[in-house]
Specification:
By secondary structure, the protein is α+β, with helices and mostly antiparallel strands. It has a single domain, classed as Protein Transport Mog1p, Chain A, CATH 3.40.1000. The protein is 23% helix and 24% strand. It is built from three helices and eight strands; from the N terminus they run H-H-E-E-E-E-E-E-E-E-H. A six-stranded antiparallel beta sheet has the order 3-4-8-7-6-5. Strands 1-2 form a two-stranded antiparallel sheet. The radius of gyration is 21 Å and the shape is globular. 29% of the residues are buried.
């Protein structure tokens, strides 16, 4: 006959594991890489950050981590903006797709995680990524038009 044995962790080890589990996701903000643009673009991005809308596509602003004036988010990372990103290589492709949203031109790139839009003909490149639920809906870009036009002048 086998005797059943239970092994118990000492109380300090249990407390440590519970504390770690409780702290592991204390911040629900998405994590986004912060761009490192040249100084003249940083000024544009800081001005843009102050003019960004409080809501986009019905989602309240909920910025990703780490906190930066170069990044913003709405709807628990459903929509994420990064300002001062490098010029995408895809812009050299004469077949690249683009859309106009209230006077701001955006290059479109489909990705596995959704769609990435990058402004064209502006001093700083602004990138907006949207989850797959926006795969065929560019209307959220209209929410950014006024802020972009006021703070990031067209270079045309």
């Amino acid at each position: 006959m086998k005797s059943s044995r239970h092994r118990f962790l000492p109380v300090p080890v249990c407390a440590l594991l519970l504390a770690a589990a409780g702290c592991s996701s204390g911040d629900d903000a998405a994590s986004v890489a912060v761009p490192e643009p040249p100084a003249d673009q940083v000024a544009v991005c800081k001005a843009l950050d102050k003019k960004l809308p409080k809501t986009v596509a019905g989602h309240a602003r909920s910025d990703p981590s780490p906190e930066s004036e170069l990044t913003a988010g709405w709807g628990d990372a459903a929509i994420v903006l990064r300002c001062g990103v490098p010029r995408p290589d895809k812009m050299d492709d004469p077949n690249a797709q683009a859309v106009d949203a209230n006077g701001v031109n955006w290059m479109v790139e489909q990705q596995d995680s959704g769609t990435r839009f990058t402004t064209t003909y502006r001093k700083a490149y602004i990138e907006v990524t949207m989850g797959p639920e926006y795969a065929h809906d560019v209307t959220p870009l209209s929410d950014f038009a006024n802020a972009v036009k006021k703070t990031d002048p067209s270079v045309l």
